[in-house]
Design goal:
The structure is a single chain. By secondary structure, the chain is of the alpha+beta class. The longest helix is centred in the middle third of the chain and has 20 residues. The chain has an eight-stranded antiparallel barrel. α2 runs parallel beside α4, α4 runs parallel beside α6 and α5 packs antiparallel against α6. It contains eight helices and eleven strands. It folds into two domains: 142 residues, Beta Barrel (Lipocalin); 159 residues.
């Protein structure tokens, strides 16, 4: 009797959370996971449909092959507001797969796979007319559909950073301390997990690029890299520029040619600059001008320079 009551309570709890039904993980135009949670007289149960073989970095699915496999759950239980589902791994000697589903609203959940170093996967309630899983193209990469809201405060910090640089006569005694304060605010947002979208990381990269030491530039480079991974392809240039700025800050030559030192009464310079390491083809891929274009830009900067500054 106690065991039956426990099973019924588990099923009721899952039902109360609105978790029963089918849930899809989509990437590109395909469904890769379909999890169905059902209530039965013996308790809650679940199935997991997925490709037999695939690779994922948490953002994309690739090398997808084999038929759709359907795995039956070992157990389903409520853990606070979440649903924990355990599936036996068919590989002999392997630990079970443990999924944690967190309800977001009536039609969305987030799924975490225990031990996987990924952000939660977004699940959406399966449409009544949803097609079966597959077929997939093993030579294609499928991007997971994430909805990441942008942080309004980070947007405001970025806007202020850019506005301070619009004047032709910048008062660095005012802008410098403001930059320090903006970096501090951005760091607190990062550390608290408040930044999620590609826009957030793109904005933060510019704020840290306007820092004062090598660690600020290295942080800006990492932030730009995350922005690219989260859909801001235009962050490639800031990723390139912050790498050069970091290299110069640690006493190494820049390698892409994004940094110019401009002084009144003297030619503009990019030195130290290792021009041989990176080809113009790679510069183009990284949204950086060719060496010939850089030389023309350097000449123009030298002609127009009104006072010492760093581009």
């Amino acid at each position: 009797m106690a065991s039956l009551l426990s099973s019924l309570l588990t099923a009721v709890s899952a039902l109360a959370l609105g978790s029963t039904g089918s849930w899809d993980l989509r990437a590109g135009d395909q469904t890769f996971f379909r999890i169905e949670i059902r209530e039965t007289p013996d308790g809650a149960t679940a199935t997991w449909e997925r490709p037999e073989h695939f690779q994922t970095d948490g953002e994309n699915f690739s090398r997808v092959s084999g038929p759709v496999i359907r795995r039956q759950t070992r157990s389903v239980r409520s853990v606070g507001a979440d649903i924990e589902i355990v599936f036996d791994d068919p590989t002999p000697g392997s630990a079970p797969d443990i999924l944690r589903l967190h309800p977001v609203d009536t039609d969305h959940m987030e799924m975490t796979i225990a031990g996987a170093p990924f952000e939660p996967f977004p699940l959406i309630r399966t449409r009544a007319d949803a097609a079966s899983l597959g077929p997939w193209d093993s030579g294609r990469s499928y991007a997971i559909t994430f909805v990441r809201p942008s942080n309004a405060e980070m947007s405001a910090i970025f806007d202020a950073d850019q506005a301070d640089r619009e004047s032709a006569d910048i008062d660095w005694s005012i802008v410098g301390p403001a930059d320090d304060e903006r970096r501090g605010r951005a760091r607190r947002l990062l550390d608290s997990g408040a930044l999620q979208s590609g826009d957030d990381y793109y904005h933060a990269a510019f704020v840290f690029q306007h820092g004062s030491d090598a660690n600020d530039y290295l942080m800006a480079h990492l932030l730009a890299t995350i922005a690219i991974a989260r859909g801001r392809s235009d962050a490639v240039w800031i990723a390139s520029a912050t790498l050069d700025r970091y290299l110069q800050a640690i006493g190494k030559p820049q390698i892409l040619g994004t940094q110019y030192t401009i002084s009144a009464g003297a030619p503009a310079t990019q030195e130290p600059y290792d021009r041989a390491l990176i080809s113009d083809a790679m510069r183009k891929a990284l949204h950086v001008p060719s060496i010939k274009e850089q030389e023309e830009r350097r000449r123009q900067y030298g002609e127009a320079a009104p006072a010492p500054q760093k581009n």
